[in-house]
Design goal:
Layout lengths: L7 H12 L4 H8 L3 H5 L1
Length: about 40
Amino acid sequence: MRKSKSTESQIMAIIKQNERGVSVPDLCREHGISSALFYK
């Protein structure tokens, strides 16, 4: 299994930002990830 580049705490912070209403494209641009990776 491949190791993630992001830590678990970073992933949780991104998800919480999305729950607060930040759009997925804005989150992806801010954190340098693709939208496919976000939904994965």
